[in-house]
Specification:
Elements (H helix, E strand, L loop, with lengths): L1 E6 L2 E8 L3 E2 L3 E2 L4 E9 L3 E4 L10 H9 L9 E3 L5 H4 L2 H7 L4 E4 L1 H11 L5 E3 L5 E3 L5 E6 L9 E5 L4 E3 L21 H19 L3 H12 L5 E2 L10 H14 L5 E8 L5 H14 L4 E6 L5 H10 E7 L2 E2 L2 E2 L1 H12 L6 E8 L5 H11 L5 E2 L3 E4 L4 H25 L1
The chain binds flavin mononucleotide (FMN) and fe (ii) ion (FE2) (2 copies).
The site of one fe (ii) ion (FE2) has 6 residues, from α2.
Length: 409
């Protein structure tokens, strides 16, 4: 955990977390940085406190001491968002400090009671409110519901121009002691963006329409610095807002000129055709993300799907349905609402088939709007004729993807 002064009397306390499943579910191969902020006006406020993932606040408290702040002297907690990655520490905090005031949204107040039994000294703040910490640190608030829970607000400090939007504009990926996006080279930022897209697609994606509304609102705020609850701080506020705007747009498709190829196979029948398909794709001038299920996690697959306009699925029939891990990942992709993709599926069956039916059912039931080319299904091993059909369909798909993306621009 470390402390950095990011603006006048404004300190970031950050902790890198690794080897966990975020939300108990999402793999984070490059970890995540959790950020908390202290503003020392005449009164001291902490925004979105963090501590170790285990909820032990001692590290946070020792850092506060370095800043010559006794934890017990903190009288104001700004809770932008009650999800426990930002508020879990309050449970321990209230054992050592019984005299503090919380600022949160109306919905946040309700959740604070449900999660931590906090009912007293909660001041509800919203779009029209301000709160004065003294020494010019006048706080304003912007309600940005559902980015990522219904309670979320962004806090803006008039004195420094720092906007604290919590989950909005956040990212996975450890910052390894670096604070600002500007400290990363262009190459490093490209790599880091993969973690930002992983975070966006795994955590925030479902709420893309609300992300659009939040961005519209936040663009009106004269923010000089965007200091989120996860990941890097942005001096180039436009860059991260534009990036998030684009990620939100990918929900409805088209996204980028990319194809995600998801496949699974039990005994190598479908796999034989996958190998051929990959050779065909190698000759095409298009970015392809390849994932085998169940080996690759939902989160990894979803990250690729989010930026892809085209999807290729390859899996056999299993007990009259799809190969199960494919069904599971597609359900999750559907629930995150990666909509209107151009798609093609091929795969093996033994006697009855059934994968196609389940695929069509998921596409309809979750209103995914994926537009499928005629599938190629084969009994047992694929024949050379099947291989040729697959090759032809892949070429059609690549052309469709390019055309769709070009028409968007
Ligand atoms: C557990 C299991 C269940 C299966 N269920 C079906 C089925 O319901 N209908 C069908 O047509 N084939 C079924 N099959 C046959 C497979 O679809 C067939 O063996 C196919 O070639 C497997 O392709 P793969 O080697 O790419 O996994 C099943 C196979 C297994 C092992
Ligand atoms: Fe959250
Ligand atoms: Fe969060």
């Amino acid at each position: 955990m470390k402390i950095t002064e990011i603006a006048e009397s404004t300190y970031q306390l950050s902790v890198d977390v690794e080897n966990i499943l975020f939300e108990g579910l999402w793999e984070i191969p490059n970890g995540v940085t959790l950020n908390s902020y202290i503003i020392k006006g005449e009164k001291t406020a902490i925004i979105d406190g963090v501590c170790g993932w285990d909820g032990v606040p001692e590290t946070l408290f020792s850092l506060l001491k370095e800043l010559e702040i006794e934890p017990a002297s903190i009288k104001y907690l700004v809770v932008n968002h009650v999800e426990p990655d930002h508020s879990g520490w309050i449970e321990s905090f209230k054992k050592i400090n019984s005299d503090f005031q919380i600022l949160s949204s109306k919905k946040g107040k309700e959740l604070l009671e449900a999660f931590y039994d906090l009912t007293e000294n909660v001041t509800v703040v919203g779009d029209k409110d301000s709160f004065d910490l003294g020494n010019g640190h006048l706080l304003n608030f912007a309600e940005i519901p559902n980015v990522h829970w219904p309670d979320t607000i962004a806090t803006f400090d008039q004195a420094t121009g720092v906007l604290f939007p919590c989950d909005a504009f956040g990212s996975f990926g450890k910052c390894d002691g670096r604070i600002y996006a500007e400290e990363f080279s262009e190459e490093e930022l490209k790599e880091y963006e993969k973690d930002t897209i992983r975070y966006y697609s795994n955590i925030v994606a479902t709420f893309s329409p609300q992300v659009k509304s939040a961005i519209k609102k936040v663009r009106e705020i004269p923010a000089k610095l965007i200091a989120p609850g996860h990941g890097l701080v942005w001096k180039d506020t436009k860059a991260i807002m534009d990036a998030y705007d684009a990620y939100a747009d990918y929900q409805k498709g088209p996204a980028r000129a990319e194809i995600t190829f998801i496949w699974g196979s039990m005994y190598g029948m479908t796999e034989a055709a996958v190998k051929h398909a990959l050779k065909v794709l190698e000759k095409e001038d298009i970015t392809v993300h390849v994932h085998r299920v169940p080996e690759d996690s939902w989160g990894t697959v979803l990250t690729s799907v989010w930026t892809s306009t085209g999807i290729i699925l390859a899996m056999p029939t299993y007990e009259f349905k799809m190969f199960p891990p494919m069904g599971a990942v597609l359900e999750e992709i559907g629930k995150k609402k990666a909509l209107n993709r151009k798609a093609f599926r091929f795969g093996s069956f033994g006697w009855s088939g059934g994968a196609e039916r389940e695929l069509a059912d998921i596409n309809t039931r979750l209103n995914m709007g994926w537009e499928f080319l005629e599938p190629v299904e084969f009994k047992g091993t694929p024949s050379s004729e099947d291989m040729e059909k697959i090759e032809a369909q892949i070429k059609v798909l690549v052309a469709q993807v390019k055309e769709t993306v070009n028409n968007k621009q």
